[in-house]
What does this fold into?
Amino acid sequence: YYVGNLLIYTDDNENHIIDGQQRLTTLSLFLLGVFENLLKFEKKLDDTNKRLEVSEQMSDIRRYLLIDRKDVRLKLLDNDKNVWKNITLILNNEEPGGWKKYTLFKRYDYIRSHLIGQIDNLEELLEFQNKLSNVVLLEIAVPDLNDSYQVFASLNSKGLPLTPLDLLKNIYLSKGGEIEKCHELKSLFEKEDEIDDIKLRQFILNNYDGLENYDNAQSLTKGKIVKKYEKIFNEKKADYI
It folds into this structure.
C-alpha cells in the first residue's frame, strides 16, 4: 500500500527528513501500539508455537523502531523527541511516564486504546501488523538542501505547503549554531505544546524585510526564504543569531 513520498537530505551520513515526518511518525505510533497490544496477547497464550510467532513479530517491531536498546531510529524535533524516546521504553518492558500532557503522547494513547485496542482477535492484529510492515514510501533524496523546498513544492502542488522553518534550522545548526537558541525562538510561538508555524514563519520573513531587505520594496516570499537565509548564514555563520 503506497502512502506517499519521503523527501530526504543527506548530510554527514545522516538522513534529514524534509517531507514525510508525519507519515513516519504515524506509522511508528501504530507499530508501537501494535507492539503493546501484542504484549497483552502474548501473556495469555498457552500455545508455544503461537507465543513464538508473536514474539518474532514483536522483535520485528523493535528492529523497525530502535537502532539498539536505547537509541530510537526516528529522531523527532524539540519536545516530541523526548516524548517519543520515553514512549518507546515500552519496547524494553519499561513503563513510560511524565509525558501524558503532551500532544504526541495523547495521539499515541488514542491509537493504542481506541484504534488498535479495539482489535480483540490475535490473528486480525497480526494481519494488521503485516499490512503496516508492508506499506510503501517513495524515497526521494536531494543533494542540495537549498533545493528541497522547490522539490517539495513540485511534488505536492495540491497539498499543504511545507514550512521551510526546519530547513533554516538545519542550515543554522550546520554553521555551528546552538540548538538551545532554536528552542528558545520556537518557544516564543508555542501555545499548549503546539508551535504556531504561521506566526513564526511570518516573524522570520518580517525579520529579513526589516533588517536585510530595507533597500528593496519587494518583500521576501516563502519560496525564497531558504535561499536568502542560507546566503546570510554562509556569510555570518551562526553569529547571525
